[in-house]
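At this stage, I put together a protein sequence along with its fold in token form, as given directly below:
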Amino acid sequence: MLVPLLLWSITGFIFLTKPGYEGAYEQLQPKLYPINQAFSIGVSGWTEAKVYRTILGEHLLVKDQGKWKNLSLTDMQEQAFPSEQNIKLLVNDAISENRNRYGEILHIDGQNIYTDTGVKISLDWATLSLRQKGQDTDLINTLYNIHYLQWLDSPELNQVLGFLGLFLLITLSGVGFIMLIKPQKIS
């Protein structure tokens, strides 16, 4: 019981002070620019529409039947997934404000961009969004799993482990409370 209690205390302290959280969970987004032209859209069936301008140009993001699409403003056709060169342009523009964290792009594998600082950036072209994950993110997620007794690959076994840990903690607290209020016999 001592090991989970110590680990819980240590990770609880880390969660309270949150060292390194700022970079690990930074919300990375493409840099947006003002839109220079007026336009009107008259298409029915969309539940949402957003217009953005990035270093790659203008994007019309629409939600149609629950699915996002990245359309061209000129012909309303779905924009093809960008070339590796355009992905580099978009991502380099987005990470330009925090080179200490992201460094330089090493290589691109489909929608995943890898940097020389160990950060992996994922591009969702349909929503024009970026997600980043580094070693610090993995460490914090591991600490979270330790803190909440998620030590096994099975969610069901982790739940059993969590209930067992709580039961032992309550039992230990109860024994301590009984020892506190019960008069001690000194021989």
Observations:
- The mean pLDDT is 86.
